[in-house]
Amino acid sequence: MSKICGGIFTSHVPGIGKAIAQNLQNDPYWKPFFDGFDPIHRWLAAEKPDVAVVFYNDHGLNFFLDKMPTFAIGAANEYRHEDEGWGIAFARPFQGHADLSWHIIEHVVASEFDPVMCQAMTVDHAVAVPFELCWPGKDAFPTKLIPIAINTVQHPLPSPKRCHDLGKAVGRAIESWGGNEKVVIFGTGGLSHQLEGERAGHINVDYDKFCLRNLAPDPEALLQHDTLDIVELAGSQGVEILNWIAARGALTGSVRELASNYHVPISNTAAATVLLSHSERVLA
Ligand code: DHB
Ligand code: FE
């Protein structure tokens, strides 16, 4: 049976991608953020996951305001990053795992979710930046990608509970897959940030710390705020925490926090990185 070995939660600010392209990891502005990936690199080198299931939001590359699915699941054998306007385009392709994607889709539809199924899909900075952070260098990515896009852009957005429940369904799907892949779950985006309007630059350290404190031991605490509360608390893009809430839902067994890093600001964003290990529930 395939196994979920852990969760990686990280901001996906496009400027991080530019810093990688310009080799600025040790620059004083960037170092405190990039240093947060040292434990993740060590953990990935030891765990060697075969597949990454990535909960993220598309920012106008594959979907736009004219057609915006609440949930979309990639079912391709390859994905590519394209520049949707930030001036970065990473060349390394992402290998997919269409068979496991279809298994996840079958399972979540049986659990009464209705995702858009994408047999062709481009992925934006919200997938590419986390992959580049986790597996720096020029070699092909050692881990396959299954992208799951959540609408955090065009209101009405799904509720935190709905995202958490989707994550749980995805977690159960992976655990019931007959292969022997090791799977890591990603949640990308956040933490608090707002890019436009009168509150541009809004950051809420108290809310971010509340999320970081509860993510591992009590993720349901994050469900007490509805989507519009989160916009108010964390900013109009801070609502990307929905991706983290879904990813945490996929870790249905016991989790342990192995690393956590919080650094304000990167660009307009309170940047955070968390690594959780995961072991299966022991069935009595
Ligand atoms: C920024 C953050 C994001 O999450 C994003 O998608 C784009 C830009 C920023 O802070 O610059
Ligand atoms: Fe974003």
Automatic annotation (TrEMBL):
GO molecular function, one term: ferrous iron binding
Keyword annotations of the record: Dioxygenase, Oxidoreductase
Domain Extradiol ring-cleavage dioxygenase class III enzyme subunit B: start-end pairs: 7-269
NCBIfam families xref list: PRK13364.1, PRK13365.1
Protein name listed in UniProt: Protocatechuate 3,4-dioxygenase
